[in-house]
Amino acid sequence: MTDLYPLFRPLLFAADPEAAHAATFAALDAAARMGVARMLVPRAAAAPVNVMGITFPNRIGLAAGLDKNAAHVDGLAALGFGFLEVGTVTPRAQPGNPRPRLFRLVEAQALINRLGFNNDGVARLVANVERAAYRGVLGINLGRNFDTPNERAADDYLVGLRAVYARASYVTINISSPNTKGLRDLQSEDALRALLVALVRERAMLADAHGRHVPLVVKIAPDLTDDALRGAARVLVECGVDGVIATNTTLERNGVEGMPHAAEAGGLSGAPLRARSDAVIRTLARALDGALPIIGAGGVLSGADARAKLDAGATLVQLYTGLIYRGPAVVTEAVRATAGYARVPVG
Fold first, then answer.
1. What are the distances in angstroms from CA 281 to CA 83, 155, 180, 347?
2. Among 214, 299, 311, 342, which lies 20 to 30 A Cα-Cα from 129?
3. Which pLDDT does position 33 carry in this prediction?
4. Which residue, 174, 163, 155, 66, is CA-closest to 123?
5. pTM greater than 0.70 (yes/no)
6. What are the sequence ranges of the domains in the chain?
7. Among 33-47, 253-267, 313-327, whose mean pLDDT is lowest?
8. 5-338 adopts what CATH topology?
9. Alpha carbon 91 to chain centroid, angstroms
10. Closest C-alpha among 271, 264, 290, 284 to residue 218
C-alpha cells in the first residue's frame, strides 16, 4: 500500500502540535475499529528476538510519551511495532504544564516538549489497557506526580508498579524527564540505589503473588556525564533491574541554535539528539559489558538510524519523533533494517 502520510503531513503540521496529535489518534482509532488500519501500512516480515525473557516480534518499539493514557494501543499496534510503551503515567491524574508546551522545529526534524507528565492517572491507564484488544508486548512507563518530593518519590513509583504489574510486559521507571522539577536528581547513584532497592524488593513480592516476573527497566537522560553513566550502570546491575532505556530528551540545543522555538524550555527530541543518544549507548554498553540489555531511543528517523543504535550497543530500538515526521513508513523501514541483525563489536 502506498504511504499516504506525506500527503496529510502538511495539514497536520499546519495545526497546533497537540491538536494534530489528537486528530491523528482519532483517525487511527477509527481505522482500527473498522479493521482497515493494517491495510494502510506497509508490512515487514516478522523478525522475533528474545530480550529480558520476552519474545519481541521485532526490535522496533514505540517510545513512551505519545500515548500517555494507553487510550490508543489498538490503533498504534496496527503500525507494525514489535512493542509499545505507554505513559508516562503517575499515581494521580495531573494536567501537566500550561499550553503551549509542544513545539516543532521542522527544519531540524525535532520537537521540544515541556508537557510535564500530563495524564489521567494510573487507574485510568489500567482500565484502558484492559479494554484494548492488543495482546502484544506492552511496556508501561511510570513517573512521580509533580508535587511529590523526591524524598517520597519511591512511594509514587511503588503505587504505579503495584497498579500496572498484572497488565505490563515490562515496567519502565522514568527518572529522566526534564519537565518535572527535580526528577533527574533521582539519577544520582545514592538516590537511584535507594529507589531501585525499594522497587526490586516490591517486584519480588508481586512476582510471587502473580506468578510471573515482570522486568524493570530504567530510562535515563542523555545529559549525564560519562562518569555519571558509568555510576548509573553499576547501580543498575547491583540492584538487579532488567534493562535500561537510553535516552530521554535533552536540555541541550546543539544543532538547533537560532531556529524558531529553539529557545523554548523543555526537552529536545528528534534528529539533533541522535548523535548524543548513540554516544550514551556506547558508553553504557562498555560499562555494562552485556550485563543488561539497552533499549536505544533518540533521533531514529530512518532504518539506518535504527541500525546505528544496534551498532552502538542497543538490543531494541524505540522511536517517537520519527513517527511524527515520517509517519508509519519509518516503522516498516526500521523493522526491515534491523531484521536478522548481527552486532558489530562496539569500538
1. 20, 29, 24, 12
2. 299
3. 83
4. 163
5. yes
6. 5-338
7. 33-47
8. TIM Barrel (3.20.20)
9. 18
10. 284
Residues whose CB falls within 8 Å of the CB of residue 208, separated by 6 or more in sequence, listed in order? none
Out of 169, 176, 177, 302, pick the active-site residue. Answer: 177
* Residue 276 reports pLDDT greater than 80: yes
Asked if 77 contacts 269 with a C-beta cutoff of 8 angstroms, the reply is: no
Using alpha carbons only, give the angle 41, 170, 306 rounded to the nearest 5 degrees.
Answer: 45
d(CA 198, CA 191): 11
Question: In terms of DSSP bridges, do strands 170-174 and 216-220 run parallel, antiparallel, or are they unpaired?
Answer: parallel
Q: What is the enclosing helix (H) or strand (E) of 306?
A: helix 303-312
269 given a catalytic annotation: no
pLDDT for the residue 37: 61
Lookup: cell for 73: 494501543
Report the C-alpha gap between 289 and 236 in whole angstroms: 13
Question: What are the φ/ψ torsions at residue 294 (nearest 5 degrees)?
Answer: -110, 135
Q: Rounded CA gap, 271 and 68, in Å?
A: 22
Instruction: Name the grid cell of 160.
Output: 504505579
E strands present in 161-228: 170-174, 216-220
DSSP secondary structure of 249-289: -BS--TTTTTSTTTTSSSEEEEGGGHHHHHHHHHHHHHHHT
Expressed in angstroms, the distance from the first to the final Cα of the chain is 40
